Amino acid sequence: MSAGAAVVTVGQAAVLVALSPLLVGVMRQVRARLEGRAGAGVLQPWRDLRKLLGKEPLTADGVSWISVAGPLVLVASSLLLCALTPVLGTATLDRVPNDLFVVVAALLIGTVALALVGLDAGTAFGGMGSSRHMTIAALVEPTVLVSVYALSIPVGSSVLSQIVEARLDHPATIWSPVSLLALLGLAIAIVAETARLPIDNPSTHLEVTMVHEAMVLESSGRDLAWLELGSWLRLGALLGLLATLLAPWGVATEVTALGLAVAVGALALKLALIGSLLATVEVFLAKVRLFRVPELLAGSFVLAFLAVTASYLVAS
Amino acid sequence: MTGVELGMTAQVVLAAAAVAAAVLVPPRLRNVVAGTFAAAVGASGVVTGAAALTDHSGSLELSTALPLTGVALDPTPLGGFVMLVAGAVGAVAAVFAIGYAHGPAASRTSWVALPAFLVSMQLVPAAADAVSFLLMWELMALASTVLVLTEHRDREEVRSAALWYAAMTHLSFGLLLLGFTVLAAEGGGTGFDAMSAVDPKSLQASIAFVLLIAGFATKAGAVPFHVWLPRAHPAAPSHVSAVMSAAMVKMGVYGALLVAFRLLPDGPAWWGFVVVALGAVSATYGILQASVTSDLKRLLAYSTTENIGLMFLALGTAMLLRSHDVSAPADAALVACLLLLTSHAAFKTALFLGAGAVLHATGERDLDRMGGLAARMPVTHVAFALGALGAAALPLSVGFVAEWTLLQSLIHGARPDDRLVAAMMPISVAVVALTAGLALLTFVKAYGIAFLARPRSSGAAGAREATPGMRAAMLVAAVAVIGLGLVPGPLADLAGRAAGVADPGSGAAVDLPGIAGGVLDPVAVTVVAALLAAPVGVVTLAAARRRRRRRVDLAWGCGGARISPRMQYTATSYAEPLARVFDDAVRPERDVVVTHYSESRYLVERVQFRQRLDEVVETRLYQPVLRAGDRVGAAARRLQNGSIHRYLGYSFVALVAVLVVVAL
Q1: Is A102 close to B569, i.e. CB distance below 8 A?
Q2: Yes or no, beta carbons of A56 and B547 under 8 Å apart
Q3: Considering only alpha carbons, which residue of chain B is nearest residue A155?
Q4: Does A314 score more than 70 pLDDT?
Q5: CB B304: neighbour CB atoms within 10 A?
Q6: Helices assigned H by DSSP within A35-159
Q7: How high does pLDDT run on average in chain B?
Q8: Residue A9 pLDDT > 70
């Protein structure tokens, strides 16, 4: 069991490392095609990473160790996040159950590392991005935890693997109003956490509207490579989680070579679908004003809260 | 004589020695000698607390200390736990004070007050009856008031802060006195054992409960009784702020635990709701104020209110779930309360001592004028960073363990059959989540603005690292934050023993009994993360060999980075989006004055921005009450205008009234 769990844990991280840049490539390509451009191809993020890792990093005088360590912390926390997301199998290490609160905490470590990198160089844009990023992160937190709560009620546990297993055993629960409300709330939170439209524009070139991009302005070379990879891994893991909760089929409950191979194929398919869908929706959306974001997040919180109360009504 | 008796005697003796040292030793050596004795008082508190926690035996009766009743000290395991935490904070702060205290803080008065403060605080949780409890409580209040007043000659705001503190702390004392009186009258004795015989369902019990909880909440700094915290902490010397915030306010939490689980257990369900509501409001309001504040010590004071709120939330949840017979999550909530108490003690000590070192080095409390301290004060920087990690409840810190335990108890405590409890739990989860999110922003701001980027003032630019003793004290607190966070098992076991619940620790990990998936093993998680990140390290090293890092003299800033550090974000601007989102609750008052050149009104010469944050609770609740008090006072003065005729008239009327009453 333990060896199998180790395979699943490491495999999830490895597969998401391989797939996340491709997912970003697919999303950019879908967007490019819908806008009538040729696009750079789905492999472009991988090529970017290779290029950045080969370049020399520049650091300004007076910056602290955060500018060097921050990107590494971000990528390490993202790898932990990937390893703990049951996208391939539900087996978990005995001492490291993929408890949702631990998963969220891993996410927050990355959030903080990124915000500190933004502050470190002492430029106006970095501070601006960092401030906005943390404001959004603070407001997303209640939605995330309350939707986690809603998902955990039918199972009686906040361990992700058990939630996914319960969904595999009783597929009808996926379409219950409780689950749908919670997933909708979670989806909005994920869009905010991964800095996608309409919260943040990942392809903006206008500094004043940037959130994520403003924080990484001062990083270059391998620092930037890790920051990019870390952010892509977050996107891959969170979209993978959403896809797994919506459609848990393919996730291996027993660790076998065939089962894992099927799981990898299913994950690739699910990520491609959900990524294309997200990219398509993004074409029709504009970024909302920063001060309208709280309204959106308050809406998502209400959905999550409704999910919890609805689960009581259904239960009693 | 058992260890507990010996320890309590030692505390009193050492405190007396510390006081004597403060009085007798010449000023040159005073810091070292008196500080060492004060640290020994704290250390003896740790030992006594540990002894009381492991085997509960030993009591001390000082029958001559007070007329009529005497003083009875008999620490329970819970009292021992709190004494241990308070002693550890006191010892670390005293060591810090040896290097830190200067000017009025190194005076005889100040060094006399510190050990008196420490010993009375450590003996509060040992008290076995209400009289001893109140005696220690009042000693603690008096000594801390003296310490808050330390710098009254140099700074005017210290006097008003001390006045607020003295008034609020005596409000607390008064409420407790009334509450204990009700219980003593009903239970027929001042001993806690006699009081616990009172029927908790009776009206008297409820009256006493409300009075006592209000009194303890005042000391703990829960909203709306928190107004003294943001005043007293910036006014007091930093080592005193550390002890007050990390240890003294916990006596309020200890008092609430005492009332809820020893004196009046199994009270009506609404008690739990009251405590949960008190906690939820304090947590949200405290962290919201902290997130928009730019004064570092004020920010830490508000964060204390937040953490106290979380402790009350955990305590109220435990009461609520006990009254519904949901035992496993109730036990987890109780353990969470004690874990929160310990974690707050550890990280707040590190943060306040760090803030003290920064104040010592730069002369600044205002975050807007700091920056770039990481390079200038490397050890302080590490200690503050680790403390901030704990305050933001991020993994690896004990703050995360505590918050995780609280969340586990909340999500497993759901009981759909009682609609009120059913609604309370998700609201509590949301409150914990919102406070966690805002705490994240607050401490990213505090750490990032103060220690990263470029210095914003000449004070910050010329900062020097603290003395070795101060560094050691800060590091001890910071190591506690990380150490207890990595290996929380033994701490959880101690907390379980203090709370009297089945052991919630297994080896190094937390393993909440009766809760599915309630296992948290930070070491295992860290090892997994390190193994996963190893390839990243290998790739980085390989890349670093091929291409070395190059230093450039200026950040890019989209081509516009000026040399002036004024271009950077400040703490005020960092929190501006949040202040705008929570406009209604925070109510910032802003003044923007734009001066144009006289030649052209299209060109701006200078822009002046001023922001003031008035607290809603203060403007809406305290100021009207104070104004009404003033009016009553002014009216009362008309009775007494100095005219002898009027006084003779009063005597005559009084005489007639007495005669009439007697005649009837």
Answers
A1: no
A2: yes
A3: B516
A4: no
A5: 30
A6: 44-53, 66-84, 100-120, 124-152
A7: 89
A8: yes
Q: How many angstroms away from the CA of A93 is the closest CA of chain B? A: 9
Question: For the complex shown, is ipTM > 0.90?
Answer: yes
- Nearest residue on chain A to B441, alpha-carbon basis: A134
- Highest-confidence segment of B129-133, B387-391, B613-617: B387-391
Task: Choose among B543, B547, B574: nearest Cβ to A131.
Answer: B574
- The pLDDT, as a whole number, for residue A291 is 82
Is B634's pLDDT higher than 80? Answer: yes
Residue B53 structure tokens:
């926690």
Find the mean pLDDT for residues B411-434. Answer: 83
Q: Which of A96, A142, A148 sits opposite B524 (nearest CB)?
A: A96
Asked if A137's CB is within 8 angstroms of B448's CB, the reply is no
- Amino acid identity at B71: V
Mean pLDDT across chain A: 88
Q: Do A59 and B550 touch (CB under 8 A)?
A: yes
Q: Which of B297, B296, B464, B294 lies closest to B373, judged by CA? A: B464
| The 3-state secondary structure of B268-335, one letter per residue | CHHHHHHHHHHHHHHHHHHHHHHHHCCEHHHHHHHHHHHHHHHHHHHHHHHHHHHHCCCHHHHHHHHH
pLDDT of residue A75: 95
List Cβ neighbours of B70 (8 Å cut-off, separation of 6 or more): B61, B62, B63, B64
Tokens of A145: 């935890």
Alpha-carbon B419 to chain mean position:
33
State the alpha helices, DSSP H only, in B101-155: 108-123, 130-148
The SS3 assignment for A195 reads coil
User: B610 forms bridges with which residues in the sheet?
Assistant: B591
Provide the 8-state DSSP code for B488: -
Q: B482 φ, ψ to 5°?
A: -80, -45
Dig out the tokens for B271 from the structure. Answer: 């008690």
Whole-angstrom distance, CA of residue B321 vs CA of residue B261: 13
Tell whether the model's pLDDT for residue B56 goes beyond 70.
no
The backbone region for B57, taken as left when phi is positive above 0, alpha when psi lies in -120 to 50, beta otherwise, is: beta
Q: How far apart are CA B235 and CA A9, in angstroms?
A: 52
Q: What are phi and psi of B127, to 5 degrees?
A: -60, 140
Give the angle B433-A213-A226 at the CA atoms, nearest 5°: 85
Taking one residue from A and the other from B, the number of pairs with CB-CB distance under 8 angstroms is 267
B354's tokens: 């760090």
CB contact under 8 A, A291 and B580: yes
Instruction: Please indicate whether, in this complex, the C-beta atoms of B394 and A316 are within 8 angstroms of each other.
Output: no
Give CA–CA dist A258/A270, Å, rounded: 18
On chain B, the residues whose CB falls within 8 A of the CB of A301 are 430
Query: Smallest Cβ distance to A101: which of B404, B453, B561?
Result: B404
Name the residue facing A207 among B374, B408, B558 (closest C-beta). B558
Residue-level pLDDT at A316:
46
- The SS3 of residue B562 is coil
Q: HSE, CB side, 13 Å, CA atoms: give it for residue A262.
A: 13
* Distance of alpha carbon B353 from alpha carbon A48, whole angstroms: 45
Distance in angstroms (rounded) separating the CA atoms of residues B483 and B479: 6
Shortest distance, CA B27 to any CA of chain A (angstroms): 40
Interface test with B, best of A82, A100, A119, A216 (most B CBs within 10 A): A119
Partners of A224 on chain B (C-beta within 8 Å) are none
Helix (H, G, I), strand (E, B) or coil at B487: coil
Query: Distance between CA B283 and CA B278 in Å, rounded?
Result: 9
Distance CA B8, CA B71 (A): 12
Whose CA is closest to B171, among B136, B131, B219?
A: B219
CB distance B437–A119 less than 8 Å? no
Confidence bin at B519 (pLDDT 50/70/90): confident
Nearest CA in chain A to B291: A135
